[in-house]
Amino acid sequence: MSDEMLKNQLTEQMKTLMRAREKEKLMVIRLILAAIKQIEVDERKTLSDDAILTLLNKMIKQRQDAIVQFEKGNRPDLIQQEKFEIEIIQQFLPEPLTDSEVDALIQEAINTIKPVGMKDMGKVIAHIRSKAEGRADMGIVSQRVKAALTNPS
Fold first, then answer.
1. Cα distance between residue 14 and residue 68, in whole Å
2. Which one of 55, 64, 95, 131 has the largest count of C-beta atoms within 10 Å of its C-beta?
């Protein structure tokens, strides 16, 4: 897979939406492409697909946090917009890992690294991150690794 495959896919989707005159979806795609361009300009580098996946996950997390705030402020119109944006962004993310797949990755990492207690948790997480980034919530993965390391079976 080329490093710019995801960016090209987003660009093609933007062109398709422009032709179809789907303004709402087009706005979200342009938002994603603008975020990618901003990072590329700031860091003077082309983003890899992995970096774009990380950015898309960050954008979803921001929208989920906004939904919580809009619920507190009783703004159903804004909640609906944020959920719509999440739905569009998720179309460009790979299929999420199931719980059993995450458990298998954790077990495989533990078997490979052979950690000695909690001090090696970072090594285990780093090993898993390369395979799970963009496909699993790394916060949850971290909690499960911690549980596995404190309660070895």
1. 29
2. 55
Specify the pLDDT at position 152: 64
The radius of gyration of the chain from alpha carbons, rounded to an integer in Å, stands at: 18
CATH of domain 99-150: 1.10.10.410
The CATH code of domain 5-90 reads: 1.10.1510.10
Neighbour-count burial of 4, counting CB atoms closer than 10 A to its CB (0-12 exposed, 13-18 middle, 19+ buried): middle
pLDDT of residue 51: 84
CATH 1.10.1510.10 range(s) for the chain read 5-90
Per-residue pLDDT at 2: 47
pLDDT at residue number 94: 80
